[in-house]
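My current task is to audit a protein record that another person submitted. Please read both lines and tell me whether the tokens look consistent with the sequence. Do not assume that whoever made the record got everything right. I have pasted the whole thing underneath without changing anything:

===
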Amino acid sequence: MVDEEIKDKIKNLYTQKKYEEVIKVSEKYTLPEERPSGLINLIGLSYFLKKNPTQEDFSIALSSFESAYLKEKNSIHGLNAIKNLVIVGIKISNVVKEYVKFLHKAKDYYLEASNNFQNNIEFLQIGIFLFTYLLDKKKIKEIILNILNGNVDSKDLRGQSTFLINYYDEWSQKEKIDISKKNVKYFSKLNTKKIVKREYLVNNVINLGFVSCDLSANHSILYFLKDTIRHLDKSKFRIFIFSITRKNKNDSSQNEMRELSDEWFDLQEFSNQQIIDIIQEKKIDILFDLIGYTHSKRLEIFNSRAAPFQVSWLAYNNTTGFDTVDYLLADKNLIYQNEHDLYSEKILYLPNIWNAHCGFKYQRKFNELNALKLKNFTFGSFNTFMKISDETIHVWSNILKNVENSRLILKSSNFCNEDLLMHKFESYGVFNQVTILDKFNFLKHEDHLNFYKKIDLCLDPFPYNGVTTTFEALWMNVPVIVLKGNNFISRCGTSIIKNSNQDYFIASNKEDYVSKAVFLSKNLSQLNSIRKN
């Protein structure tokens, strides 16, 4: 048994962030076999959090969490051990791939612990983290169903699950609006002042407020937002940006947005109620939700009447289910006239397309089709791997089988483990035709864009279409084949392609998708001409 005085000393050192001291005291005064699970967890965390940890420290940390779980599987300390193994394991695996072996162990332990913690909010959350990283969409679906069909009262988990169902074909748009409306009761109604709409107009200037959790690090939203704001008539509009992300003075993309706004607010450390108070203090006339279920903890801001008009746009391309979100910006290719009842918001159609990518500073040049000079044909998709559904893998594999000397190059914007993804391609017999690029080789955005020069034809995933990646491909003169879906989020690709006047690249069904890809791969001069135009 470890002396209580020693335990308290170690806990105090950990609280004071004296991680090296935690390790020294633990090694000096305790024996490994006598340490309780809670103490082993603290030691493991200290090895990870210590200054300048080595790979050996990483191994000790992860092995400690494993030991902590095995020692007290059914206790809260066992649950904490699984949480630590997953969270720390993902962080370490993003740097050193070989440590993903601990995440595969974590998967086994998670499944073993399911009977004890299946309704525990922290356990469900860690499961989403783990299986998203491992790209195990079957297990993610099981967790989603448990959350949405059970009595889980976490607004964050319900929000995450509502977002995640968009990656699956199984849920209809009718089911999605029903789920979204059911979510409302889990989000608090915050305190707001009574709004008298006309009081907010001063000198005929309209106050526009934009709320986002993603205004940093060249996030995709920045490419769609900055030119929109830049070209607004400043004699008619005053721009307020409420940024719920970390302030970074060295982030050029964030600084550019700061300069475009009349007033900018850094609100990451503020509560939802505090943010609403600031919004109302600034008398915002039209408040734009650039969050949706992408950051469901903050979506709660829009479950209250903070402004006369509240509009969902850009971040989450589906319905929120909130009756306090008045409008959803779309276009005629995304939501059809007979589908308005499948969205809780009133649909506002923009004339051509629901968003506008600002493009890039790099000069656009015609890229000669690689297949004209090489012996193979290269398909590509640079979408996050979570968008690559089992149906998508089936269709892409059929294309590879029907195109001689073809290959498919994949790259994800997110860190993840691609073992299960590659196994699925292997089951179709096309494993050797698929290459996954290492994200670490494309940390510069220019390097990412330039790799499109090696792609002959891009393939869009479904049912969750690409958006930013589709704009990028077209910017680099690479056509994209998309599959027309049955709701906003699965028709994004259709909207983009139609507005680029390349209707031929829109497939009406999966068979059409395959035939178009095969046809273009065998008619290189025609494809090259399309790229040139």
